[in-house]
Amino acid sequence: MSGESAFEKRHRKMVVPRGIALFGALLFIAFFVADRELISPSFPRDFVRISSRLDAWENRQEGFRLVLVSNDDRAQGFLEWGAQGLYGRVVEAKADGSARTFFLGDGGMNGIELTTAMRHGSIEVHYRPPVHPDTKGSGGLQEATVAGTRLKAADGLRILAAQYKKTQKDGRGISLRLQYLGAGQASQAHTFDEVLRRGESPYQMAAFRRAQQEEASLNVYQAPAELSQSQRTVQPEQSQRSVPPLEYEEIEYPVFISDDFVSVATQRYLFNGGAHGAASTDFDVIDRKTGVRLGLSDIFAGDDWKAGLVPLLKAELVRQHGFQNGQNEAGANTRDSGDPARAELKNQGQDDLRTLGLFEPDIWPSEDVFVCGSGIGFEYDRYQIAPWYMGEFILVLPWSEVKPYLSPALLSAGLFQ
What is the pLDDT of residues 350-382, one digit of tens each? Predict the structure, then answer.
């Protein structure tokens, strides 16, 4: 610096009187206490904290990455195992002593079972492919085990979860389950607040969601004004039978973590009566160094990338279907773009996807996109491309296949190493 500015010279000897400083400090404390429900680092009153743990492991040689969030009664996460052609969200887990079994969800990978065990601080994952009596054994798949070491890029990230249950005056129950991604480092925590929760901390968002759902419940089930008082009065036992409980879940968890990027899934579920609730998933890709959320234009380049990815997505969906049914050759399962079996699968991908139960003959890229270790993922909600019972779909295209369509910034981000 060249020297002191005029502003610095004018104010360098300014001293705040001790009484004014003390008054300001007391005023700040009073404000903090008065508004503690919004800004204090705890969930609002009547929320019960859910013990949660975030772990991540990798084995680069095997193309293996596992991000896992463990709660008292649930698990969420994402698995990539390139050597076996496996990937998908962890949707369920169960424990038996030190061993754990978890299952994958999403379309063609739905129901795949893996077992894990901890070995001296690392994780060991075992996969035994099912035998398909109507096909050639296990379809070229082999029983396999991989060991992963802890991912240092996940250090400092944390999961904050809580549950809220209440019965309203009309007898209707409300249940909220909220889970948010946070960080020990202030700048990282601020980034997650800004990108994932519109500037709200996990605790502020919990207060907002509670008020939102309670008001929604009253608006939906408020008795019409023209009814008499006797008609408007409902006994609690009658209300519990006739008015369904409101259930809302908002679950955040990372699916990919590196020093430069973190991809976060936010699953939302709302049950307000009916045959089943409404479920959806959004993804956010965050640049950890700049604190910016990556949009589609930050990931892809040009105007033809959507059309260019159609045959690749179709081929991957066909591969998933054959994977589950044991119909793929081994080369197709490992997703090696240079393998003849993979090339043949791309040719099969030109077929009409309605034969697999989808709504349309083709599949276009979803706008719910995320970055992971093995490539670019595309997520499709229920009813988006297939009936409800088929669930959500996640299709991951390998870096080698999407590379021609990527933006220069992403190409230089070091994700291919």
Answer: 578 898 888 899 999 999 999 999 999 999 998
Structure token pair of residue 192: 């997650």
What's the burial of 153, exposed, middle or buried (CB within 10 Å: 0-12/13-18/19+)? middle
Distance CA 66, CA 85 (A): 14
* Residue whose tokens read 């291919």: 416
User: Measured between alpha carbons, how far is 179 from 52 in angstroms, rounded to an integer?
Assistant: 9
In whole angstroms, give the CA distance from residue 407 to residue 297: 8
Distance, CA of 67 to CA of 85 (rounded, Å): 17
Angle between helices 305-325 and 340-348 (to 10 degrees): 110
Cβ neighbours of residue 56 under 8 Å, at least 6 residues apart?
A: 65, 66, 67, 68, 150, 151, 153, 154, 254, 257
Distance CA(41)–CA(174), nearest Å, equals 24
Q: Are strands 173-183 and 52-59 parallel, antiparallel or unpaired?
A: unpaired
Instruction: Give the DSSP H or E segment for 293.
Output: strand 292-294
pTM > 0.85: yes or no = no
CA distance 17 to 38: 31
Which segments of 149-277 does DSSP mark as H helices, in order?
186-197, 202-221, 229-232, 236-242
- Length of the chain, in residues: 417
Residues 260 and 414 sit within 8 Å (Cβ to Cβ): yes
**244 within 8 A of 272, measured Cβ to Cβ:** yes
Which residue type does 387 have? P
What digits encode the pLDDT tens for the residues 114-142? 999 988 889 999 998 876 555 444 455 67
What DSSP element (H or E) covers 393? strand 393-398
Q: Report the candidate in 201, 195, 239 with the shortest Cα–Cα distance to residue 221.
A: 239
Query: How many angstroms separate the first and last alpha carbons of the chain?
Result: 40
Torsion of CA 372, 383, 308, 60, to 10 degrees: 20
